[in-house]
Amino acid sequence: MHIQNIELHTSMDKILDRLMDETKKAGLNLFSSGYKNTENWLMVQCPYHKNGQERNPSAGFSKEDGFFNCFTCKEKHPLPRVIYDILGINGRAWLLENFEGVATEDRDIDFGVPDREVQQKVYVDPIVLEQYHKKHPYMYKRKLTDEIIEKFNIGYDPDFTLEKNGKTLHFGECITFPVKDDMGNLIFIARRAINQKLFHYPVSADKPLYGLYEIYEEMKKGKEITDVYVCESMINALTIWTYGKYAIALNGTGSEEQIEMLKKTPFRELILALDPDDAGAIGSKKIKDALDSHKIISELVYKDNRDINELSREEFESLEVKEDDWI
Predict the structure, then answer these.
(1) Exposed / middle / buried, residue 245 (Cβ in 10 Å: 0-12, 13-18, 19+)
(2) Which of the 8 DSSP states describes residue 121?
């Protein structure tokens, strides 16, 4: 079959079998229903909308040339681009590496290695959140209030299972955390298991500043917000919100992209509240060094090794906020 400028001695169903196998090995919960063979298409669950979790396949790969078309969200891409979007690798090279074939003439063709600056963003349809719109006692155990649950659309998934590296991880009951960008677009849904210490954050997902959109919504209402806490985990950030202050979460110790986002925020002061451990200290120093001259940087001084969610409101409010020495 001919795919763009590549002549492959194989069929689309064999390519899709291999792609699905690689997807599972990468720990991505996509194409869980396999594919349906029709006259002209191999029908699959679309990986570009509903977080790849739609019930009925709405997308297809052309048997003739592998071209991808979703009949619901209207995403249309050549096969190498789809391979890149899913696995984050050069789609053309992957095809030639895994199947016998030859590349024909060089042309200006999309080989599935787009410029990250112009790559089209893929968002999740917010309608998927409706199935998780339930409350669970665990939410209140983690100090969430009804107001915060509603504001951040925290939900409950009664049974979450993940296929990763050929193994099945059974999370069971989970709390769901919709993760949005600063414009309110739903990027993905994170999960925290209730009965075991498991947290699911989609592989290779972009990390926004969790909570930034909600802060901007408050500012639109006329609230003046000049200082914001910066945390590692979403639970810690949400705890600070329940205490009447504003916080964002990095879901880690801060990537280069997130640091650039922090520079562009309108807040005068950032209060670093990363976890009281070695990783948190390293992350805090990295952020302080990068934001030097861009923001007023302060740091929460912990009294012991407990993180914010483990502190009472009184204990949290008693903590010192120390400005950096260079200010």
Answers:
(1) middle
(2) P
Exposure string (b/e) for 252-285, b if CB count within 10 Å is 16 or more?
ebbeeebbebbeebebeebbbbbbbeeebeebbe
Pairing of strands 101-103, 6-8: antiparallel
- Cβ of 182: how many Cβ atoms within 10 Å? 17
Chain centroid to CA 33: 22
pLDDT band for 167, please (50, 70, 90 cuts). confident
Distances in Å between the alpha carbon of 158 and those of 31, 73, 174, 192? 21, 27, 6, 12
Q: How far apart are CA 278 and CA 181, in angstroms?
A: 28
Dihedral over Cα of 114, 53, 174, 121: its sign: positive
Half-sphere exposure for 212 (CA within 13 Å, toward CB): 25
Give burial (CB, 10 Å; 0-12/13-18/19+) of 224.
exposed
Burial class from Cβ neighbours inside 10 Å (0-12, 13-18, 19+) for residue 100 reads: exposed
Q: Give per-residue pLDDT as tens, 5-19.
A: 778 888 999 999 999
Q: Is 288 buried (19+), middle (13-18) or exposed (0-12) by CB count in 10 A?
A: middle
Tabulate helix, strand, coil % of the chain (nearest 5).
30, 25, 45
Neighbours of 156 (CB within 10 A): 18
Distances (CA, A) of 247 to 178, 241, 283, 292: 16, 6, 17, 20
pTM above 0.70, yes or no: no
**Does residue 162 surpass a pLDDT of 50?**
yes
Calculate mean pLDDT across residues 297-311.
94
Q: Which domains does the chain have, with CATH numbers?
A: 2-103 (3.90.580), 125-205 (3.90.980.10), 207-327 (3.40.1360.10)
For residue 168, list its beta bridge partners: 163
Q: pLDDT per residue over 99-136, tens digit each? A: 877 665 444 444 455 544 444 567 888 899 999 999 99
Cα gap 313→143, rounded to integer Å:
10
